[in-house]
Amino acid sequence: MASRDLALGIFFLSQTALGMLGNSVLLCCFIIADLSGIRAKPTDAIVKHLTWANFIVLCRGIPQTIAAFTQTYYLHNVSCKLVLYFHRVGRGVSLGSTSLLSVFQAITISPSNSKWSQLKVRTPRIIGPSLGLCWALQLLLYVFVPVYATDTWNGGNVTGIKDFGYCVFKKSGRLFNTFIVIILASNDVIFLGLMMLASVYMVFILLKHKQRAQHIHRSQSPRSSPETRATQSILTLVSSFVLFYATSIVFSSYLSVLEGTIKWLSNTGMAMSACFPAFCPFLLIRHYASFFRLFCTCFYQTAHCACVVREL
């Protein structure tokens, strides 16, 4: 085995294992919250869908890792179609869920006298249909993937294929391929734009609130204000989100219009598409880590913990 393949296998293995661990811990936070009677916020449903979508994206790292280590690992035809299809769907849902989370958080913290105030009451009823629409859109958008994905044996004699090591993707016509690239890139760019706009709005609201309450913070301890910490969290999440997904969009679009396969480019695109699902839970766990403290407090103070409102 070449040292390059060994390093690639170790990277994919570490990325997949770390991402699975982080998303599992995040799901455990929700399970503990439900068992302890904590009332969930409406946006928690979005985070749950985001976590499951991250799992789906990271699952592709398993055959990618095995293929890097063994060099002789191939999936069957049906397995290839399912792996590539649900990876793309999971990536789209992860992207859409993160954007929805930002939009609904922006609506939640908007001032009561703003034009978004009327949506606050309707938010719990909107989140469910929005998530369903997001899943339906991604399932329909990538319906072409099973048509062109196949195993290496069926695609071995086809010219112009894209080889992923364990599966291949047959090339379609140039006009159809260009159309697909435009549609998929537009889908990703719209979600990215929504998140950036919502995040900028949240930062603006938080900074405005900080200016109003500045005289209160001066009389308190010198640690940073809640608004500053919230702003830093938003900027960290948005920066990592935009960096990873914008890079992934560029690689995906370029690989789609490229004839044949450049191995290192394909592996880099795969790695970048899994970066945010792998590191996203660790950014969110900071908000939900208080579940553990709250659960332990309830457990030790009383045998029956009353319903507690989640303050996050």
Describe this structure in words.
This protein is mainly alpha-helical and 312 residues long. It has a single domain, classed as Rhodopsin 7-helix transmembrane proteins (Rhopdopsin 7-helix transmembrane proteins, Up-down Bundle). Helix content is 77%, strand content 3%. The protein has helices spanning 3-35, 44-59, 61-70, 77-109, 117-141, 145-148, 152-155, 174-212, 214-218, 226-257, 263-288, 290-301, and strands at residues 38-39, 149-150, 162-163, 168-169, 308-309. The strands form two sheets. Strands 2-4-3 form a three-stranded antiparallel beta sheet. A two-stranded parallel ribbon has the order 1-5. Helix 2 (44-59) packs antiparallel against helix 11 (263-288) and helix 10 (226-257) packs antiparallel against helix 11 (263-288). The radius of gyration is 22 Å and the shape is globular.
Number of strands: 5
- How many structural domains does the protein architecture include? 1
Order of helices and strands: HEHHHHHEHEEHHHHHE
Under the CATH scheme, the architecture is Up-down Bundle
Radius of gyration, CA atoms, in whole angstroms: 22 Å
Stretches where pLDDT is under 50 for at least 5 consecutive residues are 294-312
Characterize the overall form.
globular
Task: Give the tags.
Rhopdopsin 7-helix transmembrane proteins, mainly alpha, two-stranded parallel ribbon, 3-stranded antiparallel β-sheet, 12 helices, globular, about 300 residues
Quick overview:
With 312 residues, the protein is mainly α. The chain has a single domain, classed as Up-down Bundle (Rhopdopsin 7-helix transmembrane proteins). The chain has helices at 3-35, 44-59, 61-70, 77-109, 117-141, 145-148, 152-155, 174-212, 214-218, 226-257, 263-288, 290-301; strands at 38-39, 149-150, 162-163, 168-169, 308-309.
